Give the backbone structure.
Amino acid sequence: MLPSKFSHALIVFAHQNGATGFTCAGGFENESTSGVGVLGLARTTTGANYGVYGVSSSTSGRGVFGSATSLTGITYGGRFENESASGFAGYFNGRGNDAVYVENTEDGRGLHAVAPLDTAVWGRTNSVFAGVHGANAGSSGRGVYGQASSTSGTNYGVYGASSSPSGY
């Protein structure tokens, strides 16, 4: 049963265009102004269950892909929320060089993080590498930039601490 806030309309189709062409085993479409195209619910309150689970075995595949195609407005290719104080809205576990890769192909930030009461970006490593690393490959700019915009109190644009007697 769907939650009461969702009405539902379902269109299922199968289309196959050759072994290497476009193939879609099923599709869901909702043309409502406030609808949901796909809704996955895992209602049990125990166990590691998934509302939606995506897998790709291709060497260039994507387990889950989201795209917001409007050219205006504040849109999201994907949005994740978490209600648990000890949980995460997103968890990424990678085996390569980067667990999370963020790219902005236009002007603007590659990553924008906001935390109104705590640390917006936090990094830690247990190796000789940096917990947070900043680099600039342009002809001018900053690898790391810090700004403290409060007009009162003790503020630091960039603050560092080291527990090692020979550290900086």
